[in-house]
Specification:
Layout: H1 7-14, E1 20-23, H2 33-45, E2 53-60, E3 63-70, H3 77-83, E4 90-91, H4 94-101, E5 119-122, E6 131-134, E7 140-144, H5 146-152, E8 156-158
């Protein structure tokens, strides 16, 4: 078997999970990574913007965690903390997020992280037959069934949108 392009894709291959890798041209001057993915993929792939998920790394009282939610939505830190069973969550610093996950900001995937982190996926993901999330590189997304994403990340689901 050829080597997977990213740890996220390797995770999907190792678990024999049906998926589709979707690539688009990332503009290095664009720091609005989620919005760029929506603009590039929603029309081209026939998906709704709410099917495209962003991965946010959080600082928890004892370590880091991950929140996965639709790109157009804002995260409720309070709801994410409650879902992860902690009293408080804040956004992680860039360096901590990159070091822990092994990915760069704008390419952080919930899958195949260097250190598996407690994860919460917004329950709205379950409305779709497939969702898109980062495949581990800027300009790369992967389409998967939300149930597979939740299973492979050992995630809980909750309403985490503000």
């Amino acid at each position: 078997m050829p080597r997977a392009a990213t740890p996220a894709i390797a995770t999907l291959l190792a678990a024999d999970v049906a998926h589709q890798v979707l690539r688009y041209r990332h503009d290095p001057r664009n720091a609005s990574f989620g919005e760029e993915a929506v603009e590039a993929l929603a029309r081209a792939e026939g998906v709704e913007p709410e099917q495209i998920l962003k991965t946010l790394v959080l600082t928890l009282p004892r370590g880091l965690g991950v929140a996965v939610l639709p790109v157009p939505e804002k995260l409720s830190l309070k709801a994410a903390a409650a879902a992860l069973g902690v009293p408080k969550a804040t956004m992680a610093e860039r360096a901590a997020a990159e070091r822990s996950t092994g990915y760069v900001i704008g390419g952080i995937s919930p899958l195949g992280q260097r250190t598996p982190l407690p994860t919460v996926v917004d329950e709205s993901a379950l409305r779709w037959d497939r969702v898109l999330c980062s495949a581990g590189k800027r300009g790369w997304d992967v389409a998967v069934a939300p149930q597979d994403l939740i299973r492979l990340t050992a995630a809980v689901t909750a309403d985490i949108c503000a």
